[in-house]
Amino acid sequence: MAPNSGTPPLLIDPGLDVPEAGTVATGAPPDAVTTLRRSADAAGGARRLLARLRDVMAAGGTAQSRLDKIVMLIAAEMGADVCSCYVMRAGEVLELFATIGLNLDAVHKTRLRVGEGLVGDIAAHARPVALANAPSHPNFAYRPETGEDPFDSFMGVPILRGGRVRGVLAIQHIARRAYDEQDVETLETIAMVVAELVATGELVDNRELQVANDLVLLPSRLDGVSLNRGIAMAVAVLHRPQLTIRQMVADDPEMELGRLREAVDSMHSAIDRLLILSGESGGEHHEIIETYRMFATDRGWLSRIREAIRTGLTAEAAVQQVQNDNRARMASVTDSYIRERQLDLDDITNRLLQHLAGRQDKADGGTLPEEFVLVARNLGPAELLDYDRTRLRGLVLEEGAAYSHVAIVARALDIPVVGQCTGVLSRVDPLDFVIVDGDHGQVFVRPAEDITEAFLKSIEVGEERKREFAAARELESVTRDGVPVRLMLNAGLLIDLPHLHATGADGIGLYRTEIPFMVRHTYPDTAVQKETYAKVLDEAGDKPVTFRTLDVGGDKTLPYFPDLGEENPALGWRAIRIGLDRPAMLRKQLRALLWAAAGRDLRVMFPMVAEVSEFIRARRVLDLELRRLAQDGVAPPRDLKVGVMMEVPALLFQLDALLPNIDFMSVGSNDLLQYLFASDRGNPMLNNRYDLLSPAMLSVLRMLVRRCEAAGVQLSLCGEMASRPLDAMALLGCGFRTLSMSPGAFGEVKTMIRSVDVGVLQQFLDSLLGRPDRSLRLHLLAFARDHGVRL
Ligand code: PEP
Ligand code: MG
After folding, report:
1. Which UniProt keywords are listed (predicted)?
2. Ligand 1 — pocket residues by CB below 6 A?
3. Ligand 1 atom at minimal distance to the Cα of residue 718
4. Which residues surround ligand 2, an ion (CB under 5 A)?
5. Is the pTM of this model over 0.70?
6. What is the SS3 assignment for 750?
7. C-beta separation of 87 from 64 below 8 A
């Protein structure tokens, strides 16, 4: 389908004059009395029509005959000379499936491409068009076989389902006639019923639909941003799937109004309960209630739903119709705040539909396909982990940023991820076959066979590369000029642990302890924590493990932790700040680590330290617990090393005081970049705005290498940049000799290491750092190419 942006929302040409191209005239809302009178008329008309439509459906007959009757009915009820139904076919073509008033020989012959003619324009922009003088409109496409010469006025609406255009329903009048918004709404209501009938096979013969589906639901390619490499092919599961509405038409509007009232009340109570449970009016719950209030108190929203019910729709269908209508109107809005409100409204609509269906549970209901690609607007890392990892093949997000924790968790799961895939939720239906190309940041929806085959070949090549990288496991991690580089694993889930041996890692450079906390529904007590940490140490054997204490806050929320609704969670109460303010929590975690380590080596690292004094206070808590060990009869660790994450720039200016107090430092480049450049790591708008390979970032890193070397402090880097071969090459150039990365990166990074002459690289990088460039990426890429570095 053609893009929706940049087009006027609704073309209504109310007068009899020739309209100018692109005339927009939804106009100011009519006064209240006129609106009431008109809506009462329209409601009556639409209700009659819907009732008769149901009779036609109940009467049976072939699909074509029913479709023919339906266009006849619409024409009769709306006093139109023509009513036609176009259905989407292969190649983004709209085929005339049924008509009354146009030449019948044109049925199944007349075809218009999406974007061609008025019908194509409606489909391209998913919006209604109403014109008094259609032939004079620049988009009018004359088809002699239809015999439409005598018809002056035209009104058409998209047949929408699941946010996609499935066809177009149009009426025409011989005489010039000014259509109004009520006319448009009536036709939209009918189109909604037609859409459901098309989709359920009630209206178009199922076999025809089958062929049509293969052809109609075109393969489409959506561009996004690669958040993790690799290719996945599977059917789609929508994180918040649309409920299927089975019954569109109702006999008793009063009963439907009652159902709506009950559902709204029950939704209201559920949201109140959420608020009470959260204990705070903050965070997501606060947003939900605010959004709910905004729409619930916006009389327009509920009253439009009620009005739609009065036209004869079921409560569900009415809610859906108002949503479709909103979406079509919002399609061309580019203002991000308003678009965000539309997403909120989608959320509320889905909630309301669930309450109408009497279901407030998770929509997948535990019936996940054997293999699936998850498609979501955005997800928290814990929400991702809610899905069965053994079946999850890939992830596609409408939003999502490279350093968001959901992307990090997805990398740990080693699944391809494409983020910022605008519009994917409206293009993909549940169980659509999709290909996630994480290498190029693209998603293919219902791909054609040749595309699928090409990807199958790519997967083969990828497997071959994986085998090559797996073979690299046995090779030493040493540069071409003989400098050894220690490669460590980033982990946080027990399923990560087998990677420790599969990758040949030298140890775990970052164990994110918060991840086991995030996947639980209650706070784990000391014994449970001890068990987890002991398992990690058992699995690691004699390889070192660096445990980072709880790093929650920001986008890492715990289900059982109060949501504070902070304005800037990334700058908020998180990580060691929570640990120091809630020392009991920190003590319990440190006790669990000490118990788990008993008699073995232990490395403990504190996250988000901004002041040396914070480190010292945290270290004191550790010492306190260390002293308690004897009372508990537990052996102390054989060797205890304590370090910090370098993430907050303030710490860069306290190195004189810090370095003598720590055993090691690990750079958290994800956070360091965000704080150095004041650039939210989770904000997709800022995704590539600042580069890790900027002179600023690389100068800081090189300085840290020098200072740590001089102080005899071990230094490593455990942010995502260590997982990318070119970035990792730059780190070697800065002097890093220990890198900690996600499991999927080992092969590539080791291959790069073995092909680089780090002496030459270091000199090259030194010569670059004073440049005014925003990024040195291209220079480093050129270096790699010129010096045969394998990236
Ligand atoms: C980092 O900030 O680079 C880091 C490794 O920590 P996290 O991504 O878990 O915040
Ligand atoms: Mg961090």
Report:
1. Cytoplasm, Kinase, Magnesium, Metal-binding, Phosphotransferase system, Sugar transport, Transferase, Transport
2. 408, 510, 512, 551, 647, 668-671, 718-719
3. 5
4. 668, 671
5. no
6. helix
7. no
Please give the distance, rounded to the nearest whole angstrom, from the Cα atom of residue 237 to the centre of ligand 1: 29
Measuring CA to CA, how many Å separate 474 from each of 279, 543, 591, 742? 53, 17, 37, 18
Structural contact between residues 237 and 443, judged by C-beta atoms closer than 8 angstroms? no
Pocket test for ligand 1, best of 647, 736, 738, 742 (most atoms within 8 A of CB): 647
Tell me, in angstroms, the distance from the centre of ligand 2 to residue 647's CA: 6
* Per-residue pLDDT reduced to its tens digit, 289-346: 555 556 555 557 888 899 889 988 899 989 988 887 777 766 666 665 565 566 667 6
pLDDT in tens, 10-64: 444 433 333 333 332 333 333 433 444 444 455 666 777 877 877 776 676 776 7
Query: What is the 671 CA–ligand 1 centroid distance (Å)?
Result: 6
Give the CA distances from residue 626 to residues 158, 634, 671, in Å, rounded to whole numbers and listed in that order: 70, 10, 30
Least Cα distance to 126 among 39, 5, 295 occurs for 5
Q: Tell me how far apart the alpha carbons of residues 635 and 184 are, in angstroms, rounded to a whole number.
A: 78
Instruction: Tell me the three state secondary structure of residue 516.
Output: helix
The Cα-based distances of 784 to 157, 697, 699, 749 in angstroms read 56, 20, 20, 13
H/E stretch holding 309 reads helix 299-310
Q: Does the pLDDT at position 670 exceed 50?
A: yes
Q: CA 507 to CA 373: how far, in whole Å?
A: 31
| Ligand 1 atom 9, closest CA | 512
- Please give the distance, rounded to the nearest whole angstrom, from the Cα atom of residue 740 to the centre of ligand 2: 13
Phi/psi of residue 21, nearest 5 degrees: -60, 135
Which residue shows structure tokens 């988009």? Answer: 139
| Tokens matching residue 56 | 């036609």
Ligand 1 atom at minimum distance from 667 CA: 3
Give the amino acid at 603.
R
Among protein residues, the one whose CA lies closest to atom 8 of ligand 1: 670
Residue pair 171/74 in contact (Cβ under 8 Å)? The answer is yes
H helical segments located in 492-607: 497-502, 514-518, 526-540, 576-581, 583-597
Nearest to 106 by CA among 94, 123, 120: 94
Query: Closest ligand 1 atom, CA of 669?
Result: 3
Taking only the tens place, the pLDDT of each residue in 116-166 is 889 988 988 888 899 988 888 877 877 777 877 778 899 999 988 766 778
Is the pLDDT assigned to residue 214 strictly greater than 60?
Answer: no
598 C-beta neighbours (distance < 10 Å), count: 18
In this structure, which residue's CA is closest to atom 3 in ligand 1? 668
Based on the number of CB atoms within 10 Å of its own CB, is 347 exposed (0-12), middle (13-18) or buried (19 or more)? middle
How far apart are the CA of 770 and the centre of ligand 1, in A? 27
**Top mutation candidate among 548, 671, 672, 674 for ligand 1, by most atoms within 8 Å of CB:** 671
| Residues with catalytic function | 405, 718
Residue 778: burial class (beta carbons within 10 Å; 0-12, 13-18, 19+)? exposed
Cα 586 to Cα 588: distance, rounded to the nearest angstrom: 5
Task: Ligand 1 pocket test: pick from 403, 515, 574 the residue with the most ligand atoms within 8 Å of its Cβ.
Answer: 403
Q: b vs e for 264-289, b when ≥16 Cβ sit within 10 Å of the residue's Cβ?
A: bebbeeebeeebeebeeeebebbebb
**Domains of the chain, start order:** 32-209 (3.30.450.40), 220-450 (3.50.30.10), 513-645 (3.20.20.60)
247/195 Cα distance (integer angstroms): 12
